[in-house]
């Protein structure tokens, strides 16, 4: 009897992943699943759910979109647990704003990961996955604004704008959730420019609002000559956001060589990397501001106010999701008829 090599024994102990059916070209999948300038690597629709789950370990044109948010999600989740473990929530209710920021960032990353992994199951799954993705984006924008106003603001900014900031932030979070979801369901591929304008304007206005305390603070730090490491970290996460916007809106580099970046190097993957890095750097930056105690000089919202705002945004997201689910079913039913 010939002795087996250790590697052969080890391979025999590991269950073999089911082989993935061949990926398809763009013309072989429904129009809804086709991405501009992406010609190949599409997964077959209407497969069992575990097929899409296991596709995380296969090669196709969504695999990097999934991993570029799953890995940062794991990093951010670890950071949230370790950093918030150093805080005393009973002594300072502002710590909850940081925890919400961490939870918002994790939600945004995880829902995007899940959307890209499972959206190819069916047209209904595609719509619902990305509607939930937009919920994550809206919720993250709200938590970012809440944390940055409560922890990172300049004292003058927090005192003057507190009466207006939070109502606008709640309205902006709700508006972003509804607008992005509506744009996804209302328009068909190839998407008209109106959809792009609707979604970018909603997300852009929410980002500008949530970043306004930080932008004002960095400007004042620069004016006073007091820029420090944390100030530059705020500049860094804002720069990552702008980098992400560039890749999302420009279709670079894949529009210059259609088909070349179907699997690796697609602009949407670079957009994911930039936005995920932004979320990780932003959380660490807000944590350092909280540690410094600068928030004790600010006009901060009460714990009750934070809970009420959170409840309103979450309720809006739930109602929007349920409403869009009804609209999706109606749209697909009319398509069949």
Automatic annotation (TrEMBL):
Entry similarity comment: Belongs to the ADIPOR family.
Chief site of localization: membrane
Residues annotated for Zn(2+) binding in this entry: 116, 268, 272
Localization per Swiss-Prot or TrEMBL: Membrane
Protein name: Membrane progestin receptor beta-like isoform X1
Organism field: Branchiostoma belcheri
Keywords: Membrane, Metal-binding, Transmembrane, Transmembrane helix, Zinc
Highest taxon of the lineage: Eukaryota
Entry-linked Pfam families: HlyIII (PF03006)
GO cellular component: plasma membrane
GO MF entries: metal ion binding; nuclear steroid receptor activity; steroid binding
This protein's encoding gene: LOC109466059
Membrane topology: Multi-pass membrane protein
Transmembrane intervals: 63-81, 96-118, 130-151, 163-185, 197-219, 231-249, 270-287, 307-326
């Amino acid at each position: 009897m010939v002795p087996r090599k250790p590697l052969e024994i080890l391979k025999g102990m590991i269950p073999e992943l089911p082989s993935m059916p061949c990926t398809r070209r763009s013309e072989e999948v429904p129009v809804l699943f086709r991405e501009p300038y992406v010609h190949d690597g599409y997964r077959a629709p209407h497969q069992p759910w575990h097929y899409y789950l296991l596709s995380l370990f296969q090669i196709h044109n969504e695999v990097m979109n999934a991993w570029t948010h799953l890995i940062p999600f794991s990093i951010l989740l670890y950071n949230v647990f370790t950093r918030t473990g150093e805080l005393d929530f009973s002594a300072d209710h502002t710590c909850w704003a940081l925890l919400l920021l961490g939870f918002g960032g994790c939600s945004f990353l995880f829902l995007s990961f899940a959307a890209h992994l499972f959206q190819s199951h069916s047209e209904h799954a595609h719509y619902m996955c990305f509607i939930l993705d937009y919920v994550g984006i809206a919720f993250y924008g709200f938590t970012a604004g809440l944390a940055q106003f409560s922890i990172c603001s300049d004292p003058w900014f927090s005192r003057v704008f507190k009466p207006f900031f939070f109502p606008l932030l709640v309205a902006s979070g709700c508006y972003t959730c509804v607008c992005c979801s509506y744009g996804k369901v209302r328009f068909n591929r190839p998407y008209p420019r109106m959809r792009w304008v609707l979604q970018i304007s909603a997300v852009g206005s929410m980002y500008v609002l949530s970043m306004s305390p930080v932008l004002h603070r960095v400007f004042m730090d620069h004016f006073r000559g007091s820029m420090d490491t944390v100030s530059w970290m705020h500049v860094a996460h804002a720069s990552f956001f702008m980098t992400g916007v560039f890749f999302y809106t420009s279709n670079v580099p894949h529009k210059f060589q259609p088909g070349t970046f179907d699997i690796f190097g697609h602009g949407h993957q670079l957009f994911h990397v930039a936005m995920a890095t932004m979320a990780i750097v932003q959380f660490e930056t807000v944590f350092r501001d909280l540690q410094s105690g600068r928030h004790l000089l600010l006009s901060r919202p009460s714990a009750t106010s934070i809970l009420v705002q959170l409840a309103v945004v979450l309720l809006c997201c739930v109602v929007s999701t349920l409403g869009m689910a009804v609209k999706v079913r109606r749209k697909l039913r009319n398509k069949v008829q």
